[in-house]
C-alpha cells in the first residue's frame, strides 16, 4: 500500500503500538517547543523529574505571550525561564524575538522530524513536512527527558488541493473554508494531510497559516509534503542543508478524503464567537467595525503584512477604527521596514506593537464593549480578547482586515479593489533577513550544571496531589454547555496570566467567566468532599494550557463528566489525576444538573476491568464510559503522572 507523508512520519518514529486508528501508539520525539504561558510549569516539571540535560535533538523555550510588564510578575517569569533554559540545555528566545511557531519554523524546522509543543498551534511546523503536535506541558517535559509521546493513532484525512487562489483570497481563506465545512470538531482524532497540484501555488508561509489553524478543527496535527517549495524556503533562511524531500508515495491512500478547488474560494470570515462560525465576507459586508488587528501565529510571514500595507498605502484608515499591527517576528519587522511597508502602515494610522502573541492571548489590544473587532488571529472564543465575555471578535484574512480598516465596516476586498482600482499580483518582497545570534544557545553541560534557577516570589512549586480514591461522593459544582474552551476554564489575559507560575493564585480565576463564585465554592470543600463538573460536547477545546486541569484539580476537582472531550485537555486531565467520563445515553446530560450529587464505589476495579463505569446521580444508577488506556488508568489512580513517576523511583 502506498503511504502519504503523515503515515511515513509516524512509521519512522514509532516506538510502540500498532498504526491502527484508535489504538495507542508511542512516538520518538526529536524537538520540543515551549512558550512562556505554559513553559513555566514545564520547567517546574523538569525540576520535579530531576532532569540534568535535555535528551532531544532540539528544545527551545520562547517568550512570546506575556510581554506586557505592567508589574514585576512577567519579568520574574522571563528571568526564571532563561535560567531554566540554561540549566537544562534549551535554546532561549527572549521577549521581542517573535511568536514561537514561525520563529521555530524559520530557525529549527526540519522535514522528517517530530516535534511536540505545549501550545496548541504547534502543528504550524507541519508546513515543512514535520509531524508537529500540540500537547500538554507534562508531555513536553517527558519528551525533553527522552521519553516517547503516547497518543491514539489518528485517522489520516487527505485533503486534495487543486487550482489557484483567485485575486484577493489567501491561505487564511483556505483554512476558513475547512472550518466552514467541518466546524471545530471535524478534525478530532485525525491528521490532515494536504496534497495535490494546488500545492504549487502555496508558499511555505501560506502552508503555515493553514497548519496553524488546523488546531481549530480539533485535528491532532496537519502536514504538507517537504517539496521544492520547502527547499526554497529553507534556502532563504540559510538552511538548505536541513532539507530532506518527503512527499506522498504515488497512489497514496487516506482513511478520509476531501477536495478543495482553490480557484472557487472567496473571502471568508468567522463570526463571533467561534472559528467554526464561517460565512462569506459579502454576506456580512457593511457591519460597523471599531478595531482591526493584524498579527499572530496565523500571520507567520512578511506577505501578510505587506499585502495589508499595499492596500492602505497612501490612504487613511477610518477615523472610528483602531488599526493595530504586531509583526510576527523581529526579522519580519526588519523586512517590512526594508520593503517600505512599515511606513505605509504607520502613515495610514496603524498602531505598531511589539512582535509577539499579544492580543491573540488577551495581553493588550482589548476591544471596547459593543465594538466589532476584526482580527487575523486563529481564535475568537468568548472573552479570549480580554474585552469581556460579550466581545465581538471576527476572524479574517489580512486582505479583508485592511479593506475593512479603510472603510470602517466589514468590506469584501474585491469590492474595495474595484472601487480604488487596486492591482493584485507579485509584491516583489525582499529576501528574508536572518539575524545571527537572535536566539541564545544553551551553555555546555558542565557550565549548565552550575546555573542557578532564578525564582521570584510569584513562582510557586508544583502541588502534590494525593492518589485517586476508590469511592467518593461529590456535588456537581458546575454544569456547563457545549464547546467550553480552556479560556473559559483558566482565562488568559493581562489580569490572570501573569500568575501562570503560581497555581494557587491562578486558581482564583478558574471558571470565573461562567461562575464568579466557583473558586470560593470549590476551595471551601476541596479538603472534604471535592467536587465534579458536568459538560457538553467538545469540553476543553482550544489552548493546550495545562493550567485548565491543574487549577481546578488544586481546587478539589475529582471528575469531569461530559458528552465528549477535546484531545489535549482530555489528556491533561489524566496527567493530573482527574477522571474524565463520558455520558452513554443521548439525554443523560440533561438529567444531571448543577447541585446534583455524584457517587462512585469500587472505582479502582471498575477502571481496570473495562470502559464502563457505574455510578449514581442523586441515588439513581447511571452508566458512564471512559476512553483511558491501561497506562492512563494507572496514571489517574496514582494521582497523576508526576506522583506516579516519583513512586516508581522510590
Describe the structure in your own words.
This protein has 24 helices and 26 strands. The strands form five sheets. A seven-stranded mixed sheet has the order 14-13-19-18-15-16-17, with helices on both faces. A seven-stranded mixed beta barrel has the order 20-21-22-23-26-25-24, surrounded by four helices. Strands 5-4-3-6-7 form a five-stranded parallel sheet, sandwiched between helices. The longest helix is centred in the first third of the chain and has 17 residues, at 72-88. It is globular, with a radius of gyration of 24 Å.
Strand content: 15-25%
Provide the residue-averaged pLDDT: 93
Q: Measure the end-to-end span.
A: 47 Å
Shape category:
globular
Structural class: alpha/beta
Number of strands: 26
Short description:
The chain has 650 residues and is an alpha/beta fold.
Please describe the topology of this protein:
Elements: H1 5-13, E1 14-16, E2 24-27, E3 31-35, H2 36-49, E4 58-62, H3 72-88, E5 91-93, H4 100-107, E6 114-117, E7 131-134, H5 137-144, E8 149-152, E9 155-162, H6 171-182, E10 190-195, H7 204-212, E11 221-223, H8 228-236, E12 256-261, E13 268-270, E14 278-280, H9 281-284, E15 291-294, H10 302-312, E16 322-325, H11 330-339, H12 341-347, E17 351-352, E18 372-375, E19 392-396, H13 398-407, H14 413-420, H15 445-448, E20 472-479, H16 486-489, H17 493-496, H18 503-506, H19 518-525, E21 531-534, H20 547-554, E22 557-562, H21 567-575, E23 579-583, E24 597-600, H22 603-609, E25 612-617, E26 620-625, H23 630-637, H24 641-649
Parallel strand pairs: 3-4, 3-6, 4-5, 6-7, 9-10, 9-12, 10-11, 15-16, 15-18, 16-17, 18-19, 20-21, 21-22, 22-23
Antiparallel strand pairs: 1-2, 2-8, 13-14, 13-19, 20-24, 23-26, 24-25, 25-26
Enzyme class: lyase
Protein name: Aconitate hydratase
Pfam families: Aconitase, Aconitase_C
Amino acid at each position: 500500500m502506498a503511504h502519504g507523508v503523515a503515515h511515513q512520519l509516524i512509521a519512522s518514529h514509532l516506538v510502540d503500538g500498532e498504526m491502527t486508528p484508535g489504538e495507542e501508539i508511542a512516538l520518538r520525539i526529536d524537538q520540543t517547543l515551549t512558550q512562556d504561558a505554559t513553559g513555566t510549569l514545564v520547567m517546574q516539571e523538569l525540576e520535579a523529574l530531576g532532569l540534568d540535560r535535555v535528551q532531544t535533538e532540539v528544545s527551545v523555550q520562547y517568550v512570546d505571550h506575556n510581554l506586557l510588564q505592567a508589574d514585576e510578575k512577567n519579568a520574574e517569569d522571563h528571568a526564571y525561564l532563561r535560567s531554566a533554559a540554561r540549566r537544562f540545555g534549551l535554546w532561549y528566545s527572549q521577549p521581542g524575538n517573535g511568536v514561537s511557531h514561525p520563529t521555530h519554523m524559520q530557525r529549527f524546522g526540519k522535514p522528517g522530524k517530530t516535534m511536540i509543543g505545549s501550545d496548541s498551534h504547534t502543528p504550524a511546523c507541519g508546513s515543512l513536512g514535520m509531524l508537529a503536535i500540540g500537547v500538554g506541558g507534562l508531555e513536553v517535559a517527558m519528551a525533553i527527558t527522552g521519553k516517547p509521546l503516547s497518543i491514539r493513532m489518528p485517522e489520516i484525512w487527505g485533503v486534495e488541493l487543486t487550482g489557484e487562489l483567485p485575486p484577493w483570497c489567501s491561505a487564511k481563506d483556505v483554512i476558513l473554508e475547512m472550518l466552514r465545512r467541518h466546524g471545530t470538531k471535524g478534525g478530532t482524532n485525525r491528521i490532515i494531510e494536504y496534497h495535490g497540484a494546488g500545492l504549487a501555488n502555496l508558499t511555505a508561509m501560506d502552508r503555515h497559516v493553514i497548519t496553524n489553524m488546523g488546531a481549530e478543527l480539533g485535528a491532532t496535527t496537519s502536514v504538507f509534503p517537504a517539496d521544492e517549495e520547502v527547499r526554497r524556503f529553507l534556502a532563504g533562511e540559510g538552511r538548505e542543508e536541513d532539507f530532506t524531500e518527503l512527499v506522498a508515495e504515488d497512489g497514496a491512500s487516506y482513511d478520509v478524503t476531501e477536495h478543495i478547488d482553490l480557484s472557487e474560494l472567496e473571502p471568508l470570515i468567522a463570526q463571533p464567537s467561534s472559528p467554526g462560525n464561517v460565512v462569506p465576507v459579502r454576506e456580512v459586508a457593511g457591519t460597523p467595525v471599531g478595531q482591526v488587528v493584524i498579527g499572530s501565529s496565523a500571520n507567520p510571514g512578511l506577505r501578510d503584512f505587506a499585502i495589508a500595507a499595499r492596500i492602505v498605502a497612501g490612504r487613511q484608515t477610518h477615523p472610528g477604527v483602531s488599526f493595530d499591527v504586531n509583526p510576527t517576528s523581529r526579522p519580519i519587522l526588519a523586512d517590512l521596514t526594508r520593503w517600505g511597508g512599515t511606513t505605509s502602515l504607520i502613515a495610514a494610522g496603524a498602531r505598531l506593537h511589539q512582535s509577539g502573541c499579544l492580543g491573540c492571548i488577551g495581553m493588550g489590544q482589548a476591544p471596547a464593549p459593543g465594538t466589532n473587532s476584526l482580527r487575523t488571529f486563529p481564535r475568537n472564543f468568548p472573552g479570549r480578547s480580554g474585552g469581556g465575555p460579550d466581545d465581538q471578535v471576527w476572524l479574517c484574512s489580512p486582505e479583508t482586515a485592511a479593506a475593512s480598516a479603510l472603510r470602517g465596516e466589514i468590506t469584501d476586498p474585491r469590492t474595495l479593489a474595484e472601487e480604488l482600482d487596486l492591482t493584485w499580483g507579485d509584491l516583489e518582497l525582499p529576501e528574508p533577513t536572518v539575524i545571527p545570534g537572535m536566539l541564545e544557545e544553551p551553555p555546555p553541560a558542565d557550565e549548565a550544571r552550575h546555573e542557578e534557577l532564578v525564582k521570584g516570589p510569584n513562582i510557586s512549586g508544583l502541588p502534590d496531589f494525593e492518589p485517586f480514591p476508590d469511592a467518593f461522593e461529590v456535588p456537581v459544582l458546575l454544569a456547563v454547555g457545549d464547546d467550553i474552551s480552556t479560556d473559559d476554564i483558566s482565562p488568559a489575559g493581562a489580569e490572570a496570566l501573569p500568575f501562570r507560575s503560581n497555581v494557587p493564585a491562578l486558581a482564583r480565576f478558574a471558571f470565573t467567566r461562567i461562575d464568579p463564585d466557583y473558586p470560593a465554592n470549590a476551595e471551601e470543600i476541596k479538603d472534604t468532599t471535592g467536587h465534579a463538573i458536568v459538560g457538553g460536547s467538545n469540553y476543553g477545546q482550544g489552548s493546550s494550557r495545562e493550567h485548565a486541569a491543574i487549577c481546578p484539580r488544586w481546587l478539589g476537582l475529582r471528575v469531569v463528566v461530559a458528552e465528549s472531550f477535546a484531545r489535549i485537555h482530555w489528556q491533561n486531565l489524566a496527567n493530573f489525576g482527574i477522571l474524565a467520563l463520558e455520558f452513554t445515553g443521548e439525554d443523560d446530560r440533561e438529567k444531571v444538573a448543577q447541585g446534583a450529587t455524584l457517587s462512585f464505589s469500587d472505582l479502582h476495579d471498575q477502571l481496570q476491568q473495562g470502559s464502563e463505569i457505574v455510578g449514581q446521580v442523586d441515588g439513581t444508577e447511571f452508566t458512564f464510559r471512559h476512553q483511558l488506556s491501561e497506562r492512563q488508568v494507572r496514571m489517574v489512580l496514582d494521582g497523576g503522572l508526576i506522583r506516579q513517576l516519583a513512586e516508581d523511583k522510590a
